Amino acid sequence: MDRRRFLSRASFGLAAALAPAIPPAASSAPPGPSTTSKRDLIIAQAYDLTSLDPHASTLSSDWRIAFNVFDTLIRRHADGTLHPALAHAWKRTAPTTWRFALRSDVRWHDGTRFTSVDAKYSLDRTYDATVKAARLLGAWWTQTLERTEAPDPETLVIHTRWPDPLMPARLASCAGAMVPWAYMDRMGFKAFNEHPIGSGPLRFASRSRGDQCVLDANPDYWDGRVDVDRVVFRSVPDSERRVDQLLRGATDLIAPLAPEHVRRVAADPSTQVAGVLYAGLYVLAVNVWVAPLQDPLIRQALSLAIDRETIVKELWRGRGLVPNGPIPRGDDLHDSSLRALPYDPGAARDRLRRAGYRGDTIHFETTAGMIANDRLMAEAITEMWEDVGVKVVLDVIDADLRNRKNRQQAFKGLWWSDPTSIIRDPDGMMGRLLGPGQPHGYWQHDEFDRLTRAARSIADEQARAAAYRKMTAIFLEQNPWIVVLQPVEDYGLRRYVEFTPNPDQQLELRRFNFRMRRA
């Protein structure tokens, strides 16, 4: 590849100095603490939300809001540890039975009491076809559920089809969000999605599509009132505009902060950067149903032709890692013995020759700002593929079209995805997205699917690790995703905002990880 051409396209006038490879990204001479008299918090994110039903979307723009309106039974802190939430205790009472003791002091935002009936309904609607429910995303984890019971208002019992050692972790993810049965039954799903109520620290107030969503503090929150009166989530697609708003004080927090702006925000005396290594990957998902992508040799060639080190260094300013497979660093079963994914254009050309590639067009549909650097990376990767002889058509699509294509499985070839390991285990990423009937289920492999099912029921960590090593080997031969990088997720903050980001993109505003320093 003509490296000068790529570097010219990559720089776009950005600073030449590279930021650290891992967080934090602090300014060189941080000023003293800053305070504020503000009682509201303005958050600018890249895209508008698409759904307020917590079981209908896993998009980060939706879950930054949902995790504050709704509670889960169990809570995961940024360090990965699990903590009580709406369930104050839990235990496995038999190989396929879990018993949860629920809090008795939790109220929905309309004042009614949260009980086990709500918890049972919240889980049943994700897997039981007889339960009236809105159209929900493919619920990978509900394959383990057999039935639920609510023997009394403060007890929930879950019966699984096979032993599931990951149940607490699943209930700490979006899968464990609790919704109010009576309100939803009375109002219907459309009305619920327009004016939801949950039990979280923030209450829905209003929404202006394409602009903003306003949430008010819940004064009666069971875990203590959040340290603001109101939170406004604004849709600001342009990353530079988000930064400008932050620096002049028009917003208090921006998500995400693009890597090219990290030093600028860290150096300003009024702002700071909070970064965390993402519990997931940026990948190019592949529709293997279309030619020539149905050939594993073609997919191998595309992977080998990507110079990931240069992408991380030049486009991400060092704020990311070159992965070694489909399991991100930080997962409980990440295999650190594997080498980083290789860059070998000669081997890529050989794979193309062996596949009999004759210049068939490959479609690459990229967004522009849905994930950080998506379009810029897409342009760089397109050049890398063209350098080994691949004919690529690069189309830029907006987020709405991308989301429709995702729901309808209608992508022409390749597209950006940022799968999150939401339970810190490979089942929360590969199993959640690549299995039959799941959102990225374009590709199926009998042995991979068998190992996925088997790993879900294995309690022994070594045995589960062995299963995932076999799955990783299959993945790296088949490339149902072309893994690109594991980025650092950066947030820009005003200095008076104290916030600990979670690696899984949930922007959670609770007393254990957020406050505003008051004047």
Percent of residues in helices = 25-40%
- Major sheet description: 12 strands, mixed
The end-to-end distance, rounded to whole angstroms, is: 55 Å
- Secondary structure: number of strands: 20
Q: Would you kindly provide a written description of the structure presented here, covering whatever features stand out?
A:
This protein has 519 residues and is α+β, with helices and mostly antiparallel strands. It has 16 helices and 20 strands. Strands 1, 8, 9, 10, 11, 12, 13, 14, 15, 16, 17 and 18 form a twelve-stranded mixed beta sheet that branches. Helix 9 (296-304) packs antiparallel against helix 11 (345-355) and helix 15 (446-456) runs antiparallel to helix 16.
Q: Could you give the topology of this structure?
A:
Elements (H helix, E strand, L loop, with lengths): L2 H9 L28 E6 L14 H10 L4 E3 L5 E3 L2 E8 L2 E6 L13 H12 L17 E8 L2 E6 L6 H5 L9 H7 L1 H6 L7 E7 L3 E6 L12 E6 L3 H9 L5 E3 L6 H6 L3 E7 L4 E5 L9 H9 L3 H8 L4 E2 L23 H11 L5 E6 L7 H14 L3 E6 L2 H10 L5 E4 L12 H5 L11 H11 L4 H18 L2 E14 L2 E3 L14 E3 L3
Parallel strand pairs: 1-10, 1-11, 15-16, 15-17
Antiparallel strand pairs: 2-3, 4-5, 5-7, 6-7, 8-9, 9-10, 11-18, 12-18, 13-17, 13-18, 14-18, 19-20
